[in-house]
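Example record used in the benchmark description.
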Amino acid sequence: MRTLGVDLAAAAKKTAVAVIEWSDDRARLAHLALDVDDQEIVDLFGTCGMTGVDCPVGWPDALIPFLTGHLAFNAAPVLEHDGIAGRRLLAYRDTDRFCTARTGLIPLSVSADRLAHPAMRCAVIQAKIAALHGPQLRDGSGRFAEVYPAASLKIWGLNGRGYKGRGIPEAERLGLLLAALEEQAPWLDLAGHRDRLTASDDLFDAVIASLTARAVARRRTLLPDAAHVEAARSEGWIHLPSCTLDDLPL
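Model output (structure tokens):
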């Protein structure tokens, strides 16, 4: 099978993709690209069995009635979110809270932080995919799933701190992180892309997203239970690996 990982930015610039081909207990990085537009993502989706996107695929359920209430001068649904606790329900999804409880990491808010623009682009990409390949459920039960590379790295025991950025310290940490990944996943053939990966945290995150997509495809992630399933369908669900790196090729 082929898995696609997408590190999605607000525009083509700094958007990275990685396609991994899996066969015979091995995996090979078959395609790696930076500054990728919507059409390339849609085209690659069509060639891959599972896509993992590092971007929220939906918004908090509470946000819509809050906004429509504000628009219509209907105070009741707005006042339900008075205070910081109420605003947290507008800022964070059920899956964000689940991820924090399981990993200690706090995902950026899709509605109140830097992820808003990438999420708008992600919604458009989902619509373009739906037009060609049918709607992909936001809980990841189709061929399109939300992933969170920082959480995957932590679950797999890799130190994902301090590697994002263009400074010398960040580059050194990224090099060490890639070396640790190579040591723990000797079955992964980077196919000559090592230098490009050590030079771009976006490309590296796309590879981690593609590895996580494999876990999603193999049903080796934490799935929403009865308490979370309804919200996952509308808001999206971050797929956290429930397996080790060694389990991925099996």
